[in-house]
């Protein structure tokens, strides 16, 4: 069973379109994240949700809107896609455990190409 | 976030031990030292973490200097499957009062394993 899954794996679209990436985790985790890995391979946090509530939003354009319908899902909707949005997007999840830093589990990534 | 410094790349022969260094001279008392790795075309995966004492798990060992200003990830017998980018990350669990602190990735060390 895949712990953290993302769909689609590849997404090619044109500038100006609106697209969504879905993420699901079956680990029973409380917290989910979206990371972006650009062409230079830098991985950066975009959003973090804990129990369906947004707790981190790292200077991401408001064209990006995460939605968490339940604890197991965190979807990423992107409006008016731009060339610079081309990247690999990773979803991740972790337990909400106080007093220690537990590992995050990452999905396989969604490679978004905007033409 | 406290910063880490790692060599850009390292090379190892298969079946040999590998020592991946990480400097974190500005580490604070509440920073955990985490290691993740990213295999080609995959999402990052957790390797190991520690606070003060050396740690062992089935994947690797983590040796932490007494002053905590540096650490070394040890792969006891490198295999071709260990070829990846290895990230040394500091996480202060107090920031968000829970274990779900987002990961701040640096450039990491690209490990090549030669058969």
**What's the SSE pattern of chain B?**
EEEEEEEEE
What would you call the shape of chain B? globular
The major sheet of chain B is characterized as: 5 strands, mixed
Name the quaternary structure. heterodimer
SS field, number of helical segments of chain B: 0
Amount of beta strand of chain B: over 45%
How many DSSP-defined strands of chain A?
11
The stretches of 5 or more residues of chain B where confidence is low (pLDDT under 50) are none
Averaged pLDDT of chain B: 91
**Elements of chain A, N to C (H/E):** EEEEEEEEEEE
From the helix content, strand content and strand pairing of chain B, which structural class follows?
mainly beta
Radius of gyration of chain A: 14 Å
- Average of per-residue pLDDT values of chain A: 90
Secondary-structure-derived class of chain A: mainly beta
| Uncertain stretches of 5 or more adjacent residues of chain A | none
**Largest sheet features of chain A:** 7 strands, mixed
Largest interface, C-beta within 8 A: A-B, 33 and 25 residues
Number of helices of chain A: 0
The level of helicity of chain B is under 10%
**Strand order in the sheet with the most strands of chain B:** 1-9-8-3-4
Description:
- The complex is a heterodimer of chains A (115) and B (115).
- Chain A is an all-beta fold and 115 residues long.
- Helices cover 0% and strands 55% of the residues of chain A.
- Chain A has strands at 4-7, 10-13, 19-25, 31-37, 43-50, 53-57, 64-70, 73-78, 87-94, 105-106, 110-114.
- In chain A, strands 2, 4, 5, 6, 9, 10 and 11 form a seven-stranded mixed sheet that branches.
- Chain A is globular.
- The termini of chain A are far apart.
- In chain B, 0% of the residues lie in helices and 45% in strands.
- Chain B has strands spanning 9-13, 18-23, 31-38, 45-50, 55-56, 61-64, 70-75, 84-92, 109-114.
- In chain B, a hairpin with a 4-residue loop joins strand 5 and strand 6 (61-64).
- At the A-B interface, strand 4, strand 5, strand 9 and strand 10 of A face strand 3, strand 4 and strand 8 of B.
């Amino acid at each position: 069973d895949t712990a953290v899954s993302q769909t689609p794996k590849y997404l090619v679209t044109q500038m100006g379109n609106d697209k969504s990436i879905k993420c699901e985790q079956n680990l029973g985790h409380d917290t989910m994240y979206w990371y972006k890995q650009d062409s230079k391979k830098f991985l950066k946090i975009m959003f973090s949700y804990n129990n369906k509530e947004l707790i981190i939003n790292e200077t991401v354009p408001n064209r990006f809107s995460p939605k968490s319908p339940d604890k197991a899902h965190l979807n990423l909707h992107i409006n008016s896609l731009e060339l610079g949005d081309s990247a690999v997007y990773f979803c991740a999840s972790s337990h909400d455990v106080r007093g220690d830093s537990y590992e995050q589990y990452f999905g396989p990534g969604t490679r978004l190409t905007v033409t | 976030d406290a910063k880490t410094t790692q060599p850009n790349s390292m090379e190892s022969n298969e079946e040999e031990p590998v020592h991946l260094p990480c400097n974190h001279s500005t580490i604070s008392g509440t920073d955990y030292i985490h290691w993740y790795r990213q295999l080609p075309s995959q999402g990052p995966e957790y390797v190991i973490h520690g606070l003060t004492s050396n740690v062992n798990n089935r994947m690797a060992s983590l040796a932490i200097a007494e002053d905590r200003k540096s650490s070394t990830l040890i792969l006891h017998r490198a295999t071709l499957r260990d070829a990846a980018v290895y990230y040394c990350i500091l996480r202060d669990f107090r920031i968000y009062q829970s274990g779900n602190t987002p990961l701040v990735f640096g450039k990491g060390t690209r490990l090549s394993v030669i058969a």
